[in-house]
Specification:
The chain is α+β, with helices and mostly antiparallel strands and about 200 residues long. It has five helices and nine strands; from the N terminus they run H-E-E-E-E-E-E-H-H-E-E-E-H-H.
Length: about 200
């Protein structure tokens, strides 16, 4: 493992949350996807266009490689990094352990931060992991990760005035559950039936 390139170049690409920081040994490719969905129905001239078009969550797909640390130099440097930043580094983890950590992030639905060569993402979820094991990748972890951004919003609540303070409570008060209703019969059903027959 080239420890210098891992420290000074690959550190720009990492993902994780809290005390788990995963730094790939190599990034084969990154695919970023941002799109805009436009509604199919006609839009009136002069209307606010943002009401008729929305952005789905951003996604990023990365093909990554993780190698297990083996050299004594790598182990000593990784221990120093752990003591300094308090986070787990990939040099300490075997490919199997790294795979378990990624699966843990996926199954626990943990929101993570993702830093790529082009952009930094927040509130991401790992939605897919594909592991390729062949003769060439038997002792490393070669995987394809798909991560999707979760759009998080906040809402505000406002208290309405009391019904006794409203001029027209039937049209301005909030919807309320007033209990079970029983249908009633009209006062003069014969007149109502006669009117229907006359029409």
């Amino acid at each position: 493992m080239d420890i210098l390139s891992a420290l000074f170049q690959q550190n720009s690409r990492h993902f994780g949350q809290g005390t788990t920081l995963l730094i790939p040994s190599v990034v084969v490719s990154e695919v970023h996807k941002d799109s805009l969905t436009v509604t199919a129905y006609p839009v009136e001239s002069g209307a606010t266009i943002s009401d008729h078009a929305y952005m789905p969550p951003a996604t990023v797909t990365m093909i990554l490689g993780f190698a297990g640390g083996g050299a004594l130099l790598d182990q000593s440097i990784s221990s120093a990094i752990t003591k300094t930043i308090g986070q787990t580094t990939p040099f300490e983890l075997s490919p199997q352990d790294t795979y378990k950590q990624i699966l843990g992030l996926l199954t626990s639905r943990t929101l993570i931060e993702v830093t790529t060569g082009k952009r930094q993402y927040s509130n991401m979820l790992i939605t897919s992991i594909e592991v390729d094991t062949s003769v060439a990748t038997e002792y490393v972890l070669s995987c394809t990760l798909t991560m999707t951004q979760v759009v998080i919003t906040t809402t505000d609540t406002t208290k309405a005035a009391l019904k006794v303070n409203m001029a027209n409570t039937l049209s301005t008060s909030a919807v309320a559950n007033t209990g079970k209703k029983t249908p009633t019969t009209p006062a003069n059903p014969t007149v109502a039936a006669g009117n229907i027959a006359a029409n």
